[in-house]
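[User]
Protein folding is very new to me. Any chance you could explain this protein sequence and its structure tokens? I have pasted everything here:
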Amino acid sequence: MRCDLHVHTRHSGMCNTPLFRHLCRECYNEPEAVYDTLKRRGMDLVTVTDHDSIDAVEALRGRPDFFLSEEVTCLTPSGLEIHVGAFGIQERDHIELQRRRNDVPALAAYLCEQSIFFSINHVFSSLTGRRLEPDFELFADLFPGVETLNGQIPAGNNAAAARLAREWRKSEIAGSDSHTLASLGLTYTEVTGAKDAQTFLEGVRCGHASVQGASGGYWRLTRAILEIGLAMIGEKPWTTAFSPLLLTIPLIMLGNHASELLFEYKWSRRLWPVALGEKLIRS
């Protein structure tokens, strides 16, 4: 069975860019359109991982091949932001996850107690900001899963995440992380022999999943940001006044792409020192 384990809808909230945080959504996809697109692209199961929201469940709860998930925005003990994927949750779990999202050890303890599989998402990306070495130690100690194939970030960053998962003996997952319809279902997790959501997630937990599909890159992410900008104008026509800023997006995304490559370069060399005999993470 196949499932794209990193999917967003219009319920993911507003973007975090200072100028647009009150104007532009993270995503403009309606849940029904997300579901239909994923099914057309060969997904056997459908989930939604909106940022700190489960509102999409209202539109999809009646679908037999749908299960509820969430991407929780958390703060590590270092005070830095991370995104945690929690899969196959119940609606009551959302309340508990939001209560614990600024205490990652407490969040992880709750998820383990409830037998909910969870992952650290885009671990080798600068998307959520900087990292410190204790953050990686936290991931190694507490997280059963690592997203090793994200459909929006460069292949080299995904390869570094996959190496980390192998070193730590973690379960691997993949998802498109798509905020537009264009990339949905092009990156996904597959579990051979799974029969339903429960056996699929159990296969993922036990390390029987394979990650499939495409990494991201400059052009894919630039297209997505342009589409989101146009969707903002479609929803709020008065924001047409900001349309000249769309011309700057390719340049802005070029800077973002460089930031991603530098992030991978920096942390690959810290986590895997060239000198013989050094530990995975130096104290």
User: Anything to note?
Assistant: Residues 2-271 form a domain with the TIM Barrel fold (CATH 3.20.20.140). The chain has one domain: 2-271. The two ends are 41 Å apart (CA to CA). The chain has a mean pLDDT of 94.
